[in-house]
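Journal club side-thread
Mid-discussion, someone asked how the predicted structure for our own chain would compare to the paper's figures. Pasting it here so we can look after the session.
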Amino acid sequence: MEARFNYYGTTIGQKFTKYIVSAGRVAEGAGVPYATVQLVLLRASQINGCGVCTDMHFKDAVHAGDQPERLNLVAAWREATVFTDAERAALELAEEGTRIADAAGGVSDEVWARAAEHYDDEQLAALISTIAVINVYNRLNVIARVPAGDYKPGQWA
């Protein structure tokens, strides 16, 4: 498969991506565990059908020490016993935050309350920011039809 369009090879694409990278970095250091962030990034990317981001976040998580067997269960996290309650709350927030159009009210009060049980305000802001940024990246890659599979951990650090 070849990309439909080399978005990242354009001046606009490079400038826009620079700002997205900066926006994403704002959420770092808020106290949300790296493993949880990777789960959120992976799940949103799966939902959006973004192969590039699914490949990248799976590989980055494994490189950081997460278990492939556990990551393999992200799409079925509700039935899996390998996630903490805090990770489950983050995954649920990521799903509802990604599938806004699927629910008239967006993120439900119940999902928000579960997330708020595990994360403070700064961490919640970081999770919201992370979910927003990955959805931007997913859309850029899906629209341009960027192929997946070649990512090496840390390649775009």
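Post-session note: The radius of gyration is 15 Å.
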